[in-house]
Design a protein that fits this description.
single chain; 10 helices; alpha/beta; 7-stranded mixed beta sheet; 313 residues
């Protein structure tokens, strides 16, 4: 067992290191939000230019924090599945486990040349945050309440830019609408049992309305070619489905080095499947069942990954 004073000193050094890495990025994030806010008039006068400039600014912010996670803090992200075409616009759906899910998706976006084009469903309350909320609005982020009737005007705003102006994008959503926990898994299981729905393994039952609305809007746009189904898996030591906290991703070095060697012991993996948008069902009910089936298959894939990692210990 580590000596308590030495352990305390080590933790202090780690926190100071994290602050040292985070401070310049936060300064640039604030500067980027101010730049995006100043572009508000441009959004009305030259919407295409505003979208492209905001995408370039977003790229610098997200690429920097990705560099911190992978290079400075030693996270090794492995991937499998379909190769995602470079520069292709798509609807992206994923399970949600940890703060670090964003890094997993961004790793694929970087390889596909779409990092700056990622647009994430975000909470509508962020709209009221000075600079940050304005910047998200300029970028074309969908700011939603998860009440799809109330969100119709906001979704029309976002979708019109993609469909009418053909903005390149990855429109990303976590279809479970919340992070996985064992408590939420039990609640999901009870709901599925009461409503005669299949409960996916290691996942929460997906919220289908947002997905259906997104597909029905964006299938009108000829440049949005596909749906990407991403499955994210974690392990730490012997603990399955455990991802790092936000502060760990920012402050801890050697994230993927084994615990036995003094590292944090995390495994990070993302599995990608690509589906042609034109091959999805046309009707709302069919789309809901399509997403439901993908989640069942994701659960089976996760179980196989769990067994694979357990056998490799």
């Amino acid at each position: 067992m580590a000596d308590p004073p030495r352990q305390t000193a080590s933790e202090l050094i780690r926190h100071l290191r994290g602050l040292g890495l985070l401070a310049p990025w936060l300064a640039w994030l604030l500067a980027a939000d101010i730049l995006l806010s100043l572009m508000l008039p441009l959004k009305f006068l030259k919407p295409d230019l505003a979208y492209n400039l905001s995408s370039r600014i977003a790229y610098t912010v997200w690429r920097w924090i990705q560099y911190t996670f992978e290079k400075q803090n030693g996270a090794v992200i492995t991937s499998s599945g379909d190769k995602l075409p470079t520069g292709e616009s798509a609807i992206v759906v994923s399970n949600h486990v940890s703060w670090s899910d964003f890094y997993m998706i961004q790793a694929l976006a970087i390889r596909a040349g779409m990092l700056g084009r990622c647009r994430w469903f975000a909470k509508v309350q962020l709209r009221m945050v000075p600079f940050l909320g304005w910047g998200l609005w300029v970028m074309g982020m969908p700011l939603v309440s998860r009440n799809w009737l109330k969100d119709k005007a906001e979704l029309d705003r976002v979708f019109n830019g993609i469909t009418k102006r053909r903005w390149p994008t990855w429109l990303v959503s976590f279809s479970e609408a919340t992070r996985f926990t064992q408590k939420k898994y039990l609640e999901s299981t009870e709901w599925c049992s009461a409503n005669n729905k299949p409960q996916p393994r290691h996942l929460l039952y997906p919220r289908v309305k947002g997905f259906v609305s997104t597909v029905q809007h964006l299938r009108e746009s000829p440049h949005v070619k596909a749906v990407y189904d991403l499955t994210i898996a974690y392990q730490r030591g012997k603990q399955w489905h455990v991802g790092p906290s936000m502060w760990e991703t920012l402050s801890c070095p050697r994230l993927s080095e084994p615990l036995s060697l003094g590292g944090r012991g995390y495994k990070f993996h993302v599995h990608a499947r690509r589906f042609e948008l034109g091959e999805l069902p046309e009707d709302d009910e069919g789309l809901a069942k399509w997403l439901e089936q993908r989640w069942v298959e994701k659960g089976e894939w996760l179980e196989e990954k769990r067994k694979e990692w357990a056998a490799s210990r």
